[in-house]
Amino acid sequence: MSDKKATGLFQIRRDIPKNVANTIMLSTFGLLVLAWFIGSNFSGIDHIFLPTPQATFKAMVVEFQNGTLRADIRVSCCRVLVGFLISVAIGVPVGVLAGTFKIVSCVTKPLIGFFRYLPVSSLIPLIMVWTGVGEAAKITIIVVGTLFSLITMISDVAKSVSMDLIGSAYTLGATRRQVIMKVIVPAMMPAMMDNLRTLMGWAWTYLVMAEMLASSSGLGYSIMIAERFMKTYVIFMGIFVIGLLGLIIDKAFALVNMLLFHWASEE
Fold first, then answer.
1. Which fold is adopted by the domain 68-260?
2. CA 14/CA 264 separation, integer angstroms
3. Each residue of 18-46: pLDDT tens digit?
4. What are the extents of the domains in the chain?
5. What is the tens place of the pLDDT at every residue in 111-125?
């Protein structure tokens, strides 16, 4: 059957009603929690290995009420935000220049090609030697883990801007600076926002790594302490909170992208 004759939800690259999409997404999450509930309560698996949702959510409520969870969330969010903003402040301008000028690309390409594939975990001892074990170490780990990939992504977006737009701007008398600021950068913005949305997810990944290895506070630290005392329900709580925060931040990015660039948004 051809795409023109196809009906129902399974049509290639076709939108479905928003209420249907939201119902499917909520149902998927609900089924995951239901499977967790059934598996932990009725499978006979020891709760040390698979804690119940009841124990996990009870721990979440208790730690939220006594302020421990709120403090961990606040500390982790601040670290992520600072590391993210530093990466953006460095990576976006460098990426735009690398994607616009070949000479800049020649300078950055070998450096990015070298550092982008280095495992950040192998650099943590060196980072701690240079910055100590304070906040600077965690933020540096986030920046090192995200910066070089961000430069590559932004550079690729800059290269994708149509030469017809650039040529038209020159024809109308624009200077090189005007072409960059009024043609290339605005044309990049929708795709750049999507890249920053992805970058935020990576920032959380590296934050948890940093907090588990070199910290005395934060969500990653609480997970590490729970592992030492075999409190797997606290580990599940930390994972759930990080996932929930990630979902909220991701939807916030999607909303901003839709409001600012609704003509290019798919959500």
1. MetI-like fold (1.10.3720)
2. 16
3. 888 889 988 998 999 999 999 999 988 88
4. 68-260
5. 888 888 888 878 888
